[in-house]
C-alpha cells in the first residue's frame, strides 16, 4: 500500500446531454492529472442531470451499450490515473435503472461498481420534491474496492445519511470512503459538511466527496462544495461553488493513527431499546 496519495475531486455543472458533459468532465480530469492527482473522483450524475422519469428513460443505456463507460475507461488509460466515474444511469433487465458508480484503474479496467442503496425520496420546504425510487432500483450490496493506497468504500450521495453503511465498509477494510453527490442547496447548506466530517470521524477514513454545482434542468440547483476530509475530521479541500477541481495529499498513515487514538470500530456492544412512558 502506497503511503501517500494525491487525490482530486472534480466539480461539474452537468447539463441534459451526455456528450458535452463528458467533454467537460474529461477536460477537468486531465487538468487534475496534470496537477499530480493519482485518484480522481467525479460527482453523481456526471453524464447528465434531468428532471423526471421520462427524460431519464430516454437517456439511459445498458452497461454494454453505455457510451460513458468506455469513455472513462479510455480516459483512465490515457491519463494513467485511477478514476471514480461519479454515477451513471444504467438500464437494468427489469426496466428500472441503477444509479451506478464505476471505479477504473490506471489501465482503464473497471475494477468495481456500486449501485446506490438508499433512494432519495424527500419533500423539502418550498415544494422541492424528489422520488428517486420511482425510476431507480436500490442496490443490495456494499462494495469495497482494492487500490494501491488501501481499501476504497463506495457510497453515493444520500447514502451519507446512513452511518451503518460507512461503518460496515470501514470494518471490511476501507481506508477511503467515496461519496459522489448532487446535493440540493437546502440540504447542502444545512448538512453537507457536518455529515461528511462525521462519516470521516466515525470510521477513521479519508472521505472524497465530489459534487455537482449550480443550476441544472428545470432550475434544479445543487450545492457544490466538493470536499476532501481527513480521518480526524479536518476539511483538507473545499471546492466552493465554482466548476473545477480540488486536490489534496493524503497521508494514509493517518488512518491508523486516528483509529489507534479512538478505536471506536472495535467497541461495538449489543443492546436492546427500552421504551419508557409510551
From TrEMBL:
Tell me, what's a Pfam family for it? CN_hydrolase
Keywords for this protein: Hydrolase
Could you give a GO molecular-function term held by this entry? hydrolase activity, acting on carbon-nitrogen (but not peptide) bonds, in linear amides
* Stretches assigned to coiled coil: none
Q: Where is the CN hydrolase domain?
A: 5-252
Question: Where does the signal sequence lie?
Answer: none
Q: Does the keyword Manganese apply?
A: no
What InterPro entries does the database record attribute to this sequence? C-N_Hydrolase, C-N_Hydrolase_sf, Nit1/2_C-N_Hydrolase, UPF0012_CS
Q: Which PANTHER family match?
A: DEAMINATED GLUTATHIONE AMIDASE, NITRILASE-RELATED
Q: Record's family?
A: Belongs to the carbon-nitrogen hydrolase superfamily. NIT1/NIT2 family.
Indicate what this protein is called per its UniProt record: Amidohydrolase
Amino acid at each position: 500500500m502506497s503511503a501517500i496519495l494525491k487525490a482530486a475531486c472534480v466539480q461539474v455543472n452537468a447539463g441534459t446531454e451526455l456528450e458535452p458533459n463528458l467533454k467537460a468532465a474529461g477536460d477537468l480530469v486531465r487538468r487534475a492529472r496534470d496537477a499530480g492527482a493519482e485518484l480522481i473522483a467525479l460527482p453523481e450524475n456526471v453524464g447528465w442531470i434531468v428532471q423526471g422519469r421520462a427524460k431519464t428513460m430516454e437517456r439511459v443505456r445498458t452497461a454494454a451499450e453505455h457510451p460513458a463507460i468506455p469513455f472513462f475507461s479510455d480516459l483512465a488509460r490515457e491519463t494513467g490515473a485511477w478514476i471514480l466515474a461519479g454515477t451513471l444511469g444504467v438500464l437494468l433487465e427489469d426496466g428500472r435503472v441503477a444509479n451506478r458508480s464505476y471505479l477504473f484503474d490506471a489501465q482503464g479496467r473497471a475494477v468495481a461498481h456500486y449501485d446506490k442503496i438508499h433512494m432519495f425520496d424527500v419533500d423539502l420546504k418550498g415544494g422541492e420534491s424528489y422520488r428517486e425510487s420511482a425510476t431507480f432500483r436500490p442496490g443490495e450490496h456494499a462494495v469495497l474496492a482494492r487500490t494501491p493506497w488501501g481499501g476504497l468504500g463506495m457510497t453515493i450521495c444520500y447514502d451519507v445519511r446512513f452511518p451503518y453503511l460507512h461503518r460496515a465498509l470501514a470494518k471490511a477494510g476501507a481506508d477511503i470512503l467515496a461519496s459522489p453527490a448532487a446535493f440540493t442547496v437546502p440540504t447542502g447548506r444545512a448538512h453537507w459538511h457536518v455529515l461528511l466530517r462525521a462519516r470521516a470521524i466515525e470510521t477513521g477514513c479519508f472521505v472524497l466527496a465530489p459534487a455537482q454545482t449550480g443550476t441544472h434542468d428545470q432550475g434544479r440547483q445543487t450545492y457544490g462544495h466538493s470536499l476532501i476530509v481527513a480521518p480526524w475530521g479536518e476539511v483538507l479541500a473545499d471546492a466552493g461553488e465554482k466548476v473545477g477541481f480540488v486536490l489534496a495529499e493524503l497521508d494514509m498513515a493517518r488512518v491508523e493513527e486516528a483509529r489507534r487514538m479512538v478505536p471506536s470500530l472495535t467497541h461495538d456492544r449489543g443492546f436492546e431499546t427500552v421504551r419508557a412512558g409510551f
